[in-house]
Please model this.
Amino acid sequence: MSETPAGPTPGFLVWRLSTKWRVAVDRALAPLGLTHAQYSLLASLSGMGRSGARPSQRRLADHTGLEPLYVSKLARALEAAGLVERSPDPTDTRAVQLALTAEGREVTGRAIAVVHPLLDRLLAPLGGRDGARARVLVDELTALLAVPLDAPPDVPSDGSPTDVPTEE
Model:
């Protein structure tokens, strides 16, 4: 029998923080006509595009953690708004590559200018976006995100078995 934790669980706190931050970013970006999900896609495309990459929708889904179908829906809406261009992948006829348009780069730049100060404010208790505690938080969250969703429940993330029978 397991004991009930005395306070909130880490999962509950991560969920609450994620919800709080999504609402804050949604509110901050509303004057630009963007949602947090759209911003995540645009900012990711901006970062990938700086190195000349034209990621597929699948690669962008993997990068953002969004479902591929949702990325497709977001990309179509952003294309209709003139912010993203979708083009066939020359190496895979089933794939679509994404890139920011000139207007998309301009809007994304404005959105980043809105979101970065917001993140500084939200991360102020940890020293801001560039604070040492914020860097530790990023490392810890990155470690948690690296745990595969489909790992069997009885196998730790390091792959060692937890219930090894012994001979008596």
In short: The two ends are 26 Å apart (CA to CA). The beta strands are 84-89, 92-100.
